[in-house]
Design a protein that fits this description.
heterodimer, A: alpha/beta, Rossmann fold, 5 strands, B: alpha/beta, TIM Barrel, 2 domains, five-stranded parallel beta sheet, globular
Amino acid sequence: MAGRRILIAKPGLDGHDRGAKIVARALRDAGFEVIYSGLRQTPQMVAAAAVQEDVKAVGLSILSGAHNALLPEITQLLAEQGADDILVFAGGIIPDQDIETLKEAGVDAVFLPGTNTQDIVDYLNDRLG
Amino acid sequence: MAIKDPPKPVEIADEKKPSVYTDEALAILSAAREGWETSARQAFEKRPPWKGDFTTVSSMDVPHLVTAEQTADIDPLREIGVPGEFPFTRGIHPSGYRGRAWTMRQFAGFGTATDTNERFKYLLEHGQHGLSVAFHLPTLYGYDSDHEMAKGEVGKCGVAIDTLADMEVLFDGIPLNEVTTSMTINSTAPILLAMYLAVAEQQGVDIRRDVSGTLQNDILKEYIAQKEYIFPPRPSMRLITDQFAFASEHVPRWNTISISGYHIREAGSTALQELAFTLRDGVEYVQYGIDAGLDVDDFAPRLSFFFNSHNDFFEEIAKFRAARRVWATVMRERFDTQRPRSSMCRFHTQTAGCSLTAQQPYNNVVRTTVQALAAVLGGTQSLHTNALDETLALPTEENARIALRTQQILAHESGVINTIDPLGGSYFVEEMTRRMVDGTFEYFRQIDELGGMVEAIEAGYPQREIMDAAFRYQRALETGEKKMVGVNDFVLEEEEPLETLYISDDLAVEQVAQLSRTRESRDAGAVGRTLDALKKGAAAEENTMPLILDCVRAYCSVGEISDALRDVYGAYEEPAVF
């Protein structure tokens, strides 16, 4: 089970948690151990929780437009804490033009509106082995 | 698969059941219905139903046919009535849309106050009637643009407002005695109302006589669905009753609250849950107002509502009609209101953002049209139609214009405004309306058993109901039981990307510089004095509204005023469950 522990987090001020909670439930139902951060998490809080909980992956849900500021900071903080082996993926409203930049900053995958939760399950099964 | 069957209508003994039909007529109708049932069965033997699930988008069962017999016990006077009279099922105005069409009110706000001021003027020039302000997240949460939590958020989801100086720019050249303004603001509502009144003062407008608008100010649905809360529920309720008392005396044309189902629906509720939780929130505000010593007939006429209009056409129309009947009934029976206006459910509608798809986004214009038509046939007082690109970004000017044009086509070309409540008396619509009414009263009973809505929220009850419905809907989409065109069926392999509005991170620098200039030029002594007075008043029983007005006039920022209140009331955190 320890190999399948995931943190789902809501960075920034965005309170839209329908997607985060649906993904959290779907991953739990697919056999992952899921920790949900709750709302209004700073990058420091997300990185600290990921390290302390020893998760294999962090899913970041963000719909407010603050992704360019917050997501690279999270990957950087993870790297600084020697935790860059933690897989970081994101979902929400993210313009196409920002996806490449986020990937260069260490976000492994970005899931956009309309994604089937099974695709996220398959992705994690594939990446986490 | 039915998510939740509405409870069966209460059975009244036959001899008491009022009916517009004689017993003989009912017997004839009954025989006709039986005849139809036989022929329908035979038809299905030849060709079975083409899908297994004929339910609404909320998974409410839909009858195959409703006949006169089935609706014979709906009282045409006491339950349906005429427009402008209790229980207002057919509308609150005797003149319908002939006296005045609905107010076309497009929600707008992005970037700095200057950017949004330009958009407001553009929308007014193109025939919009009233303004509706979207604030950025830091303003909604009571943080200034230079706060750590504001990083990356400045001007993104709405306009950045830190101090009165920004508000002056936002309404520059817009006379506040001529437009009405709706502000989507909740935890920090008293601060933004104070800023609006301060700008009106500067314009020399007679506030008592000429200022009109709406604050969302519905904190209960923040805990339930949208999650933009700052303080715990009870002090938040006190700030709201302070505004009820202040506005009924000083700004009598102001709607102090817009009790909102919109966000509850967006969070994934069913139509019935949206209706029931919203109206039960309304009951809670009325009870708190009465408990704070206010006369219900003083503040109830200024309560307004805000609903979502989703894809399922008749379910939505039934919901709107039921909203009026339930509210009228509950205000008269539970609170013994005397003024007719106290029991009128006046509402704004926004088409469903969550129904829009990023895939094949031009299809969203069609969805929005159907949803807007349902709102109009449901008798809405004002309407926002979403732009086709709103699932991707804030709308571009062109897409915002198409959204407004959608309403103008309905109002001026479709002819649906010519008669009042054209669907009134439809067997199906009246039956669905009744199911909505009965289902709402059943939810009221459950919430009353929990001790009230504040207690139900503290127990996580509405939150769980909504989350469960959201998850079931997602499952229904993923199994293909429910279809979303372009998402799980009729998919295009390749799509052209849509040009969207891009808000640069650079504007945060500009906004923070503006805030610093305001901080340097204001009277520091007045800032300290007014904030201290607010803390003292908030800790005591004093009405906080005049104290917040003093802070605002001294150019205290949204963050500073919110921090003063945080010192007194503390901050709320919800348990992180999913």
